[in-house]
Amino acid sequence: MIKKSKVIALILAATMSCSLFVPCVSAAETTEFATREYIVSEFVQSVGRNTLDESEAVLDMFSDSAKISAEYKEDISRAVVGGILKGYEDRTIRPTESVSRIEAMVMLARCVPELDASGDVIEFTDVPEWAKEEIEYLSKAGLVKGYGDGTMGADDFITIEQVGLLVERSDEALRTVNPGDSF
Predict the structure, then answer these.
(1) CA–CA separation, 84 vs 140, rounded Å?
(2) CA distances from 165 to 3, 20, 95, 103, 171 (A)
(3) Which residue has the higher pLDDT, 61 or 47?
(4) Which of 119, 160, 172, 127 is nearest to 146 (CA)?
(5) How far, in Å, CA of 178 to CA of 181, rounded?
(6) What percent of the chain has a predicted confidence (pLDDT) above 90?
(7) Angstrom distance (rounded) from CA 106 to CA 12
(8) What share of the chain is helix, strand, coil (3-state, %, to 5)?
(9) Element (H, E) at 36
(10) Distance from C-alpha of 48 to C-alpha of 78, rounded to nearest angstrom
(11) Do the beta carbons of residue 80 and residue 59 sit within 8 Å?
(12) How far apart are CA 144 and CA 122, in angstroms?
């Protein structure tokens, strides 16, 4: 009888131990990174609300403009005309590629030149020289907080969730949404 109860206890312990591993899915496996066309569209629709001119003809200057999804073309053309999106030296904009956090922050800084940037600067250790001015501006305005360890994850890809947070913070800072408008 004792043998039987030990075997049952062992089976139950093994079953319970195995069940602990099933729900443990890494956040990296479920994280969806934002594409350049998505980020630009979100920033233009939120922050640039009808303040940017549009001309799809400007997209012809980029060799990969045919890769832009139809739903994003107007917003991307507004971003190019408005100086938010400048493209790469090889005359591409790489619309469907994931974007680093630093690239997204620089685009956001170009979208919100009229923020109250009177707060304290957060000194991030991983910001490249070419982006320091924009990141300082966004940190003074309270839009960029980083990871809390002195870094902002400059080379990490930005997620859709993080883009949403930036849009939310910039809407609040610019007061572009009136209470009740979103209902």
Answers:
(1) 20
(2) 58, 32, 21, 16, 10
(3) 61
(4) 127
(5) 6
(6) 56
(7) 55
(8) 50, 5, 45
(9) helix 36-46
(10) 9
(11) yes
(12) 8
Q: Which residue in this structure is represented by tokens 């949404």?
A: 177
What is the distance between the alpha carbons of residues 23 and 41, in angstroms, rounded to a whole number? 34
| 3-class secondary structure, 157 | strand
Q: What type of residue sits at position 109?
A: A
pLDDT in tens, 10-58: 555 555 554 444 444 444 445 799 999 999 999 988 876 556 777 778 8
Mean predicted confidence (pLDDT) in 108-119: 87
The answer to whether 140 and 117 have CB atoms below 8 angstroms apart is: yes
- Packing angle between helix 160-174 and helix 101-111, nearest 10 degrees? 20
Instruction: Return left, alpha or beta for 4; rule: phi > 0 is left, psi -120 to 50 is alpha, else beta.
Output: alpha
What b-and-e string marks burial along 49-81, b requiring 16 or more CB atoms within 10 Å of the CB?
eeebebeeebbeebebbeebeeebbbbbbbbbb
